[in-house]
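thread from #wetlab-drylab

HS: before we spend reagent money on co-crystallization trials with glyoxylic acid, can we at least see a predicted complex? here's what I'd submit
DV: go for it
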Amino acid sequence: MPPVAKLSINQNRLQSQIDELALISENAPPVVTRILFSEADLRARAFVKKLAADAGLHLRQDVVGNIFVRWAGQNPDLPAVATGSHMDAIPNAGKFDGVVGVLGAMEAIRALQRAGLHPKRSIELIIFTAEEPTRFGLGCIGSRLLAGTLSPEKAALLKDRDGTTLESWRRQVGWADGDLGSVRLPRHRYSAFVELHIEQGPLLDREKTPIGIVEKIAAPSTLRLELTGVGGHAGAVLMPERHDALLAGAEIALAVEKAALTSGSADTVATTGIFRIEPGAVNSVPCQAHLEIDLRDTEARTRDSALAQIERSVREICRRRGVTSDLERVATDPPVICDPKLVSLIAQTCSTLGVPAKRMISRAYHDSSFMAQVCPTAMIFIPCRKGYSHRPDEYSSPEQIKTGATVLAHTLASLCSAD
Ligand code: GLV
Ligand code: MN
Ligand code: MN
């Protein structure tokens, strides 16, 4: 049983903060784009830091920009209870992905404060750096470094499209006051991590179930592919002489689709989300293509065999077309099983509150995937309309968000009172 009476979330304030944060974007509303190190990213950080300071909470930022908002418990030496999510947004995104888990958690903490709770354990809200892979092609950079699954050396050398490294960006924005190795969490810093997030799939919305409790997070992977063909005059180079990088890439994109469709698992999904060509002139044969491929499954085994199939296709297509390839596995992460005790606690909390809930799989990845390597971890999902996400019409209603924040607040109340 939660140790406090029903907590009240200030739905209006939470919604107006979500709306306000959505205006901090690289694009005009309703589009939200907030790419790591953009002016919008830096302004969003300032926005949330002000909210934390107004709530009287302690702030810390590590050298990769992960922000920690702490409400000190009566026994600050006990491992803290953590919650949180991200505020960065891919190009052409909506306003709820990640943000619900940041501002919803802040409101959950305020509700606990209003209820007069004196937490035994500290509660920490973590706002993770770069959950989205937009700038460096790798997602969850902040949480990977916290968990120690990404080495500081490799992280420092991550390069964006312009060739600027993470290390160089850190210096430019003034976060370089220490080595990236210092980001890694010490053992037993947290007793639990719970992330509130929109489902990003259609099930809760379709079934009109207000809460999803995540038991498993699917296994994502990312490939980066550089294709080098032979350019030339679009009028002068005859068809049998061509080594067109775009056409090799186009065949590969179809092979990526086929690898998912023929994997034998309905859970395999594959996307060629980035495809750029050089020189990009209508009267020039493309000499260079850059592709980034996202491949996932709920099971590592089927994901890995589809991955191997894609790699075979790349070799075969490039050989046949006389195009050279440089293929990199940027990330191949395992699926994550959420902590069964934490899943049960959230289920019990929903039942006590009279909120229907269902256990489910997350097909999207989250910072929780990496926090799970550091402490018991689980996620609370709320519905989003038609499952739309990573698009501007992503939508969860104020009531749905309030329900999620209420369940989170009660879960945190239980966890921070536990021995
Ligand atoms: C997270 O944004 C994902 O792509 O799953
Ligand atoms: Mn996302
Ligand atoms: Mn997200």
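DV: The chain has a mean pLDDT of 97.
HS: ok that's useful, forwarding to the group
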